[in-house]
């Protein structure tokens, strides 16, 4: 029972973190991320909730959703603070652009190859 609930929490946290990651990217990379990754993440999030519905009570499902969403938001806040302390604004912008263009190239490669 505990392992099932932990896997439920991990599934919720993983899928919601990918959904939340979409907001970091620019419009062009965000569109590709939204089409190919975020849609699957929403389906995974809903599937995890359905898994919880089949195995746990409504209270445990709601607690799991709240814990997962709060954990992802707190993680993003701490990660943002850490990155701002560790790197300059220019370095962060270069890394963000690199990851955005890498995502675009990666998706185009797998679409047309």
**Could you say which overall geometry the principal axes of the C-alpha atoms support?**
flat
Structural class: mainly alpha
Largest sheet: none
Strand content: under 5%
Helical residue percent? Answer: over 70%
Separation of the first and last Cα atoms: 44 Å
Number of helices: 4
Encode the helix/strand succession as letters: HHHH
**Low-confidence runs:** none
The whole-angstrom Rg is 17 Å
What is the arithmetic mean of pLDDT?
85
Number of strands: 0
General description of the model:
The longest helix is centred in the middle third of the chain and has 29 residues, at 27-55. The chain is flat. The mean pLDDT is 85. With 113 residues, it is mostly helical. The termini are far apart. It contains four helices and no strands. Helix content is 90%, strand content 0%.
List key phrases describing it.
mainly alpha, single chain, flat, 113 residues
Brief write-up:
The protein is 90% helix and 0% strand.
List the helices and strands and how they pair.
Elements: H1 2-21, H2 27-55, H3 58-86, H4 89-112
